[in-house]
Amino acid sequence: MNHEESNMQQACVSWFRAQYPQYAMLLIHPINEGSGHTTKDRRRQGIHKAEGAVAGVSDLIFFMPVYNASLGLDEEYREDFGMSHGLCIEFKTPKGKQSQEQKDFETMMKAAGYQYEIIRSFEAFRQLMTAWISLARKNDRQRIASAHVTIVKEAEEREKKRFYKILGKEI
Fold first, then answer.
1. What is the DSSP letter of 11?
2. Average pLDDT, integer, range 75-104
3. Domain tally for the chain?
């Protein structure tokens, strides 16, 4: 990933987390970088590969299913299941092209029932994510938002306990 793509991805993730904090944990970046130019990079790549890294994996994966989406899913899969399990997002500059490994990953994800999109601008990302979330079932969105509230409350409680422990006081 070049710096322009990285900057666009960072801006998109920042916007998403601010706009949809309840879904922030569902949008992940599967760390898979490494130039391989130095011995340290090659060693790190070997470890990542042994841990399950896959060449060509998308820049982001959004784990929110949508139903009856006709957003480019493999036609046979959509007919069988009428859904997409989630969304794979690859960032490219306006003239950027996918590597063969990225094309292979796209093929596999579509066959497995995931949507795959190449994003070339912040606005395209914003439109995609807004549309995607609107396609998710209301009860799925509510269940996820409820889990988010629970997680935030539990994190606040843990922080409160740590604070009082530092002060040497009981809650």
1. H
2. 84
3. 2
Beta bridge partners of 88: 61, 116
Q: Dig out the tokens for 170 from the structure.
A: 């009981």
Half-sphere exposure of 142 (CA within 13 A, CB side): 3
Q: Which domain holds residue 130?
A: 3-136
Say whether both 95 and 83 belong to one domain.
yes
Question: Does 150 lie in the same domain as 116?
Answer: no
Task: Over range 34-54, report the average pLDDT.
Answer: 77
What is the overall mean pLDDT for the chain? Answer: 88
CA distances to 45, 86, 124 from 36, rounded to whole Å, are: 7, 30, 31
pTM over 0.85: no
65 touches 50 (CB < 8 A): no
Same domain (yes/no): 85, 150: no
pLDDT tens readout for residues 98-136: 999 999 999 999 999 999 999 999 999 999 999 999 989
> Rounded to an integer, what distance in angstroms lies between the CA atom of residue 155 and that of residue 163?
12
Same domain, yes or no: 64 and 114 = yes
Sign of CA dihedral 51, 56, 59, 64: negative
